[in-house]
TrEMBL record:
PANTHER family: HYPOTHETICAL CYTOSOLIC PROTEIN, POLYMER-FORMING CYTOSKELETAL PROTEIN. It comes from Pseudoxanthomonas dokdonensis. It comes from the Bacteria. This is Cell shape determination protein CcmA. Belongs to the bactofilin family. InterPro entries: BacA/B.
Length: 134
């Protein structure tokens, strides 16, 4: 369970969604969110907050994730927008696109979707804006 998992340095768990819990709707959080249960909706970090969302091996999310740091080890159906970093652990099963600045993918992780580098996406938008104004 939770107490058996070592926390990364500087990472705390402020909110836990346990394995017996299913949330229907959006979850807005700050700090550390650890998901062992199931969410059918968006997972959104509050603007301007240092936030980490961790999806445990037995957890699942059907919806979009927007947070600075996203660590996945469970099942996700939806896109991820991580301002800082995405980590796909060995048991991660992702069906969606990952928008990232830094990505780390462990052996065994599965991704069905696209990897979109954040700086690349912003460069494309800037280029399109420049073309539109010319």
């Amino acid at each position: 369970m939770l107490r058996n998992k070592p926390a990364r340095e500087g990472q705390s768990i402020d909110t836990l969604i346990g394995p017996q819990v299913t949330v229907h709707g959006d979850v807005v959080f700050s700090g550390g969110l650890y998901i062992e249960g199931h969410i059918k909706g968006k997972v959104l970090a509050e603007e301007g907050e240092r936030a980490v969302v961790t999806l445990a091996e037995q957890g699942s999310i059907e919806g979009e994730i927007r947070a600075p740091v996203v660590i996945l080890n469970g099942r996700l159906i939806g896109d991820v927008h991580a301002a800082e970093r995405i980590e796909l652990a060995a048991k991660a099963r992702v069906h969606g696109n990952l928008h990232y600045r830094v990505v780390e993918m462990h052996a065994g992780a599965q991704l069905t979707g696209q990897l979109v580098h954040a700086e690349s996406a912003s460069a494309i938008v800037s280029e399109k804006l420049a073309q539109a104004s010319a």
